[in-house]
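Known limitations

Files may contain more than one protein. Parsers should not assume a single record per file. Below, a two-record file is shown to illustrate correct handling: read the sequence, read the token line, then continue until end of file.
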Amino acid sequence: MASAPRLKIDGGIPTQPGQVIEAATALEHNGYDGGWTAEHSHDPFLPLLLAAEHTSRLELGTNIAVAFARSPMIVANIGWDLQTYSQGRFNLGLGTQIRPHIEKRFSMPWSHPAPRMREFVAALQAIWSAWRDGTRLRFEGDFYTHKIMTPMFTPEPQPYGVPKVFLAAVGTAMSELCGEVADGHLGHPMVSLRYLTEVTMPALLRGVARSGRDRGDFEVLAEVMVATGENDAELAAAIVAARKQIAFYGSTPAYRKVLDLHGWGDLQTELRRLSLAGEWDTMGSLIDDEILSAFAVVGPVDDIASGLRARCAGVVDRVQPIFFAASRDCVNAALKAFRR
């Protein structure tokens, strides 16, 4: 009988340019399968050029880049170049962000996020098709239009194919869309195993089926919070940090649906109230052990690899652990079972 596919292990790549090379090479040396950047205070794409130059095997991706802060043409061009330079190792991970950030931070239009994201991905594929296959670019949608592509603006051919597109999704509508139009799903840390299996995966599979593909054609990544330490004091500090992070996520209305599934919806209201008052420490104290264990793998270093497998194996294809207050040596020790 064929064995189940191996659970891939991914790590984060910092976006500060001076830290990228050391972090990316360490991930590859320690047997990680992939390294991902996130769009916070620095550009998420630029670091991956450095990472590609200094690694040879590691998959590289954005988790996430904000789609609606850019046009499909800009993203298509960046994705093509990173795919070429990395020799086929680039995964394009996109997310919507939320309306206030799109309109007030990026000064870009916001409307109908799921239909807009569907069209964004379709526009990417149309542009890449024009470059790869020489098809005429005639993309006209409700949100994006791309109808000019001359030889001067067409990048050189490359043999690696187009990047895989991953979409971040929590709600059912975006998850179904992800399963239908993307190559993979990027999960959020504020998703419990129960929510993943009862809500996210069924929605993804409905989308995959609608696209005419099989589950094996689609990759699912879970981000999982981890609280561990090499001694009791480090573990205790990590647990406090994890409680605060869960409380921060829980204060956001977008994740109330996750708490509702567990019967913890009223907690979101209280966390929201406390966040507006700046009561961050108090918020963390409301995350009891049951809630903590629903969203994080907690325990001594030697228990973390098995805990991650128990949470993810057979459900998702790859996991990106998020450690709190842990040294690099601690992280490496906790994940040694995943090394090649």
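...continuing to the second record:
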Amino acid sequence: MTLPPTMNAMILTGHGDTDKYEWHTDWPMPEAAAGEVLVRVKACGMNNTDVNTRAGWYSKAVTGATENATDETPDGNDPSWGGKPLAFPRIQGADICGKVVAVGDGVDAARIGDRIITDCWLRDPSDLTDKTKTGYVGSECDGGFAQYCALPSRNALKVTSDLSDAELATFSCSYSTAEGMLTRAKVTEADTVLVPGASGGVGGALVQLAKRRGARVIAMASEAKHNDVAKLGADRILPRAPEDLRATLGGEKITVVGDVVGGPYWPTLIDILERGGRYTCSGAIAGPMVDLDLRTFYLRDLTFTGSTVIDLEVMPNLIRYIEAGEIQPALAASFPLQELVAAQTAFIAKQHTGNIVVVP
């Protein structure tokens, strides 16, 4: 296969608002280095990491919600998920669905033609379990907001599915994040899981994956999105932020809260956890600064788990769930790659229920 010397790509030039993106039609083609594959990107999902990284929201100097991050200035020392400066220019986009078109040295040529989705986490080949030596596709290396992307072969996971490219591009980040959270919290059929923000990509994945584990699931979302959330299989759906959550829940006993929202409502979520309950978190789109009464934490024997770098078994499990039809994509909308700014604006404004993808 003859590959072109250049490609279309959306380039992030620095931290800030969406004007930091630049559209290029002549960006140099990547090459597959030793141990890598070159992927023709067919679709790429959008997630909060893309927004947060662009805005520098991960910096401790930023205290507001994700949609307001650019109103504050990151201090430059810790603007990425890993707390380190990024190299620019950068091509973002971790949730890739595509086809392997070339391989680097040491990679079996039989991989050419594989349909793949990404394991977003870049790991140290000498110790795949070392979470201190990890990177993220679209952050520490270029990602899928382009026509082509070079990835370590182990991060390009073969998938066999009748789902469309856009549908498959919804799984890598949202669903692996959700499965990682549920794994850390050790969710089983004995649990009742409360999911704030259930209309979002991760929230919707939490609903499906917790139901797959046999748990009872109570979703929280704005009432305009209840019909869409119902399709994900939640046992009950509540308003986004009931004034009296305990009364609204009635006799429900919440053993797990799976949260990517945070913000001012956070103490209410902690207060309704049963004794011995677990809170698991992988985001704070409504704001990272929260109030915690330590007495609630220790007197109620609660367990808090943060979840970022997923365990090794998460992505192979997701591939198995996808191929068996045990989970379904929640594709909200797709945009041409050159309209990424419009796509991200819609994503931030939560105009849709589920995941948004871009198509090169």
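Parsers that stop after the first record will miss the second one. For reference, the second record is described as follows. The CA atoms of residues 40 and 148 lie 5 Å apart.
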